[in-house]
Amino acid sequence: MSSRKSLVELFNRSLTAFQTSNDAFRVVYTLPRLADSPSSPAPRQPRQKVDSLVVLDSSFNPPTLAHLRMAKSALRERNIASGGGGGGARLLLLLAVNNADKKPKPASFGERLGMMHDFAEDLLEEEENGVEVDLGLTTRPYFHEKSSVIAEQGGYGGAEQIYLVGFDTLIRIFDGKYYDDMGAELGPFLGRSRVRVTMRIDDAWGDEEEQEKYLEGLREGGLEAVGGRAEWAERVEMVRGRGQGEEVVSSTRVREAAARGDGEGLKGLLSARVRDWVLEEGLYRE
């Protein structure tokens, strides 16, 4: 395993190279490391056809157990749908760095990429289907733009993209204020992509029934009312979030526990390697 310091240095170099290029998307690392891979960690082109590209797009500040559950659930469902053969599913952990000229807080982009690396190792330890995980960077702020550059530059062929989002993000995706022409911009995105929504049960967003009613409302004219198309709602799938007895997880709760140095409290919020990184490197203490 690479040391944390060397990983952060590696990712800082990758970030600088990306920022000084004209690329809008780039894979900077692929896990797991293979025996015949170069001694220096590097991205790796898919060795088999990718049917489904599962995209987890986040600030990863830090990556949490909620992210892990979302990714595992989507990957396992793709495996079941393919009859247990993996179905050419691949996971992309995507970090947007469009504000990279400003010092990100509280964890640097290099540290976040390092935690994404360890998060991927924790996930791979639990997966048995030979999935590969790419760590990617993008300068694009919106989903339809990210999807376009991934399709053009990612080397994934014509893979269907599956975006893992929370309910609050779904509302933003269909908010007309983010588009000059919603039909022209979201149409291609939803032609190549699906949106897998983890329902968020809290006071701000209501219960599962209310969130399912929102999606039904989109099907019944809500999308057309804002310049979209009703059939887009068929590209959206709603799934349950945390299971019985699982803690509510948020990046805010993680940072609050980390600020107290509460290692026990972080056990229900972060995977093992990410938790060790946060505690041992003193992240989020300020």
Automatic annotation (TrEMBL):
Alphabetized CDD domains for the sequence: NMNAT
GO CC field: cytoplasm; nucleus
Involved pathway(s): Cofactor biosynthesis; NAD(+) biosynthesis
Protein name as it appears in the record: Cytidylyltransferase family protein
Annotated PANTHER family: NICOTINAMIDE MONONUCLEOTIDE ADENYLYLTRANSFERASE
Species, as recorded: Colletotrichum musicola
InterPro entries: NadD/NMNAT (IPR005248), Rossmann-like_a/b/a_fold (IPR014729)
Assigned keywords, A-Z: ATP-binding, NAD, Nucleotide-binding, Nucleotidyltransferase, Pyridine nucleotide biosynthesis, Transferase
GO BP term, pick one: NAD+ biosynthetic process
GO MF terms held by the record: ATP binding; ATP hydrolysis activity; nicotinamide-nucleotide adenylyltransferase activity
Top-rank lineage group of the source organism: Eukaryota
Reaction catalysed by this enzyme: beta-nicotinamide D-ribonucleotide + ATP + H(+) = diphosphate + NAD(+)
Keyword Nucleotidyltransferase: yes
